[in-house]
From TrEMBL:
Matching SUPFAM superfamilies: NAD(P)-binding Rossmann-fold domains (SSF51735)
Annotated CDD domains: retinol-DH_like_SDR_c_like
Gene Ontology terms, MF aspect: oxidoreductase activity
UniProt protein name: SDR family oxidoreductase
One Pfam family per UniProt: adh_short
Keywords: Oxidoreductase
Length: 296
């Protein structure tokens, strides 16, 4: 059964960071399949524009923008309240938003005092998932997290609990990949914890994907040049979005949980370190403490 044959009528799908790039293409593809789509991002102007564009292109009026900053726990709690007020159910939660500003020279911190890359890419999805479990379990929902093929370059990487805030040493590249490794570990643990509630949790391994031209403005001139060279060897956001939709919509995955998928929709393995139960359990505890989660 192909993408165009999946019917998402009556399904509510939330995608963070869906104002551009892969997230926006996934939102468009899901709306074409009849889904009700919630676009979440922190930029109100581009978020509303993306929602309007998707409605126009798909003739599906059920596309809503909600403002949310995944680096801010206050914003995530507010977002959760908005979702509960406006929607009585949720079928799919895709954690697409990410901070990937590799031009950072030193760590920046959130209002909670947490390094922003780790806060946005890992703790934000953890907290939002927790706050939406009640809606997801009613519909045997799907949580989809996003990791990176770049982790293949770091087969021995693990979570450095002594330096989560990057105050001892900081590299934006390592901070980014550590946050993506943390998301993988969260995927494996959350799949186990949420299985009794009927919620599945799977991850996607995203390779090099072409950036929208407009997003080049967000990074340094050196990185802009690098991205333009990299573009020639990258897949398109539309191609990558198909895997998002596959995990969100395919009936074949109703009982599949705790797995890792590549851009060809194949199950793949992550590093040996990513399956370490002692690190996974410690990360689970630390993540819950940092987000003040008491139960799942």
């Amino acid at each position: 059964m192909g993408l165009q044959e999946w019917n998402m009528d009556g399904k509510v799908c939330l995608i963070t960071g869906a104002n551009a790039g892969i997230g926006k293409r996934a939102a468009l593809q899901l709306a074409k399949l009849g889904a009700e789509v919630i676009i979440v991002c922190r930029n109100e102007v581009s978020g509303k524009m993306a929602a309007k564009e998707i409605i126009t292109k798909t003739e599906n009026p059920r596309v809503t923008f909600l403002k949310g900053d995944l680096s801010s726990q206050t914003s995530i709690h507010q977002l959760s309240r908005e979702i509960h007020n406006q929607f009585d159910r949720l079928h799919v939660l895709i954690h697409n938003a990410a901070n990937f500003d590799l031009s950072m020279k030193k760590p920046k911190f959130t209002e909670e005092g947490i390094e922003t890359i780790f806060a946005t890419n890992h703790l934000g999805p953890v907290l939002l998932s927790n706050l939406l479990v009640d809606q997801l379990k009613e519909e045997k929902g799907r949580i989809i997290t996003i990791a990176s093929k770049g982790l293949l370059v770091y087969p021995f990487m693990t979570v450095d609990f002594q330096n989560l805030n990057g105050e001892q040493s900081f590299s934006p590249t390592k901070a980014y990949y550590q946050s993506k490794l943390a998301q993988l570990m969260f995927t494996y643990k959350a799949a186990e914890i949420l299985q009794p509630k009927g919620i599945t949790v799977n991850a996607i391994r995203v390779p090099s994907v072409q950036l929208d031209e407009g997003r080049h403005e967000e990074v340094s001139a050196l990185l802009r040049t690098a991205y333009k060279i990299k573009r020639k060897f990258s897949i398109t956001p539309e191609q990558m979005a198909r895997t998002y939709v596959y995990l969100a919509a395919s009936p074949d995955l109703e009982q599949i949980t705790g797995k890792y998928f590549d851009e060809e929709n194949n199950m793949v393995h992550s590093s040996k370190k990513s399956y370490d139960p002692s690190v996974i359990n410690k990360l689970w505890e630390v993540s819950n403490q940092l987000t003040k989660i008491e139960q799942w």
